[in-house]
Amino acid sequence: MSRTGHKRRKIARRRMKRPPPGAKPGTIAIDPAATPSLIRVMACSPTACSDVEIKNPAELSLDAVKGGTRWINIDGVGSSATISTVGSMIGLHMLTVADICNVYQRPKVEEYDDYIYLVIRMPHADGVLSTEQVSICLRADLVATFQERPGDCFDPIRARIHESNSRICARGPDYLAYALIDAVIDSYFPILEGIGDRLELLEERVFAAADEHVLSELHSIRRDLVTLRRAVWPLRDPLNLLLRSETKLVSAETRIFLRDCYDHVVQIIDLIETHREICGSLMEVYLSQLSQRTNEVMKVLAIIGTVFMPLTFVVGVYGMNFDTSVSPWNMPELEWRWGYPAIWAVMIAVAMGTLWIFRRFGWIGRRRRENSNGIVHHAANGADRSNTNGHGSA
């Protein structure tokens, strides 16, 4: 198995860490390979902005910047104690904390009395396409995000927060949550564009001279599309629920922007389905061409075998040990002066006649056929191919 396949299986095993069957609600599955937690707190207001990293969760302070927005970002969910401490500080339910640590959740949204919990999957295309769980908790005074490991698509959001007169700082936590959701959704488009470029190159290779590597690359693309589909397809319902929800945590202005996110999700799903159809079509074309090439080879071999079959019969007959001195009927042509050239002439005539019959029936080459108007049509493999100024003839 290739190194890429091992990496895929390793990622899949790590993400399928689950609590044991029958465990009580809120049980956290401990994964020793998970990344330790790192806390980064950003607080901004129209007049001030701070950005600090915290290693000890006890140092985390929820003193709000007056009239500002706070964003608590935690990279890595390996330390369940850190996640539990932060969760208790911002008032998360124990089931929410368990869902944050058990990173096999599908995209969903859950509404509680004082916060909204959203799960979304962020794609990574670093050699092997994968997705990681991003948990977003929206409160009236802050946004908390939990990621599986460092590295995300939120750097443009951080840069916008540091700008003066930032819209994110002015519009509150719900707009920040929208910006984070939008950044994750938009990160799918470059990956899909790359897949589209790969499919175009594979299409040229399939119709030019497809090799055995084309099929493996098509299977790889199909696996990537399945991964993206699993991550994006369930996201429609959570966004639709946020748009229709009557919660006061999301303002009417922010719902308009969330509707744009919903439209982007629909576009991504359409692109995924389109790429899946193209991928399936290319696989069918590749297999069809492979079968056609095999049929062509078998056709040539069958023609060769058919041509030599009567010749083998002739030489087999004259390979028998008959003595002409015993009987005048024992191959008298063996004593004939022109016997050997005559046999060669017969065999050549038989071979040429066989090839002429094949051509006559359209099994090889092209054959001519005249219609009732006397127009000559050329047919290949029994199919008519006519063109008279762009109009077919009856």
Low-confidence parts: 1-15, 370-394
Question: What is the CA-atom radius of gyration, in angstroms?
Answer: 37 Å
Strand content: 15-25%
The chain-level structural class is alpha+beta
Major β-sheet strand ordering: 2-1-3-7-6-5-4
Instruction: Give the helix tally.
Output: 11
Mind summarizing the main beta sheet?
7 strands, mixed
Total count of strands: 10
The rounded distance between the terminal residues' Cα atoms is 58 Å
- The CATH homologous superfamily of the largest domain corresponds to CorA soluble domain-like
SSE blueprint and pairings:
Layout lengths: L2 H13 L22 E7 L4 E6 L14 E7 L4 H10 L4 H8 L6 E4 L3 E12 L1 E12 L2 E6 L7 H8 L4 H5 L1 H14 L1 H22 L2 H21 L3 H9 L7 H66 L21 H22 L5 E5 L5 E5 L2 E3 L9
Parallel strand pairs: 3-7
Antiparallel strand pairs: 1-2, 1-3, 4-5, 5-6, 6-7, 8-9, 9-10
Helix pairs in contact: 2-3, 6-10, 7-8, 7-10, 8-10, 9-10, 10-11
Keywords:
394 residues; alpha+beta; Beta Polymerase, domain 2; 2 domains; seven-stranded mixed sheet; three-stranded antiparallel sheet; 11 helices; 10 strands; 17% strand; rod-shaped; disordered N terminus; disordered C terminus
Report on this structure.
The protein is rod-shaped, with a radius of gyration of 37 Å. It is built from eleven helices and ten strands. It starts with a helix and ends in a 9-residue tail after the last strand. The strands form two sheets. The chain has a seven-stranded mixed β-sheet, with helices on both faces. A three-stranded antiparallel β-sheet has the order 8-9-10, with no helix packed on it. Helix 8 runs antiparallel to helix 10 and helix 9 runs antiparallel to helix 10. With 394 residues, it is an alpha+beta fold. The N terminus and C terminus are likely disordered. The protein folds into two domains: 264 residues, Beta Polymerase, domain 2 (2-Layer Sandwich); 80 residues, no CATH class.
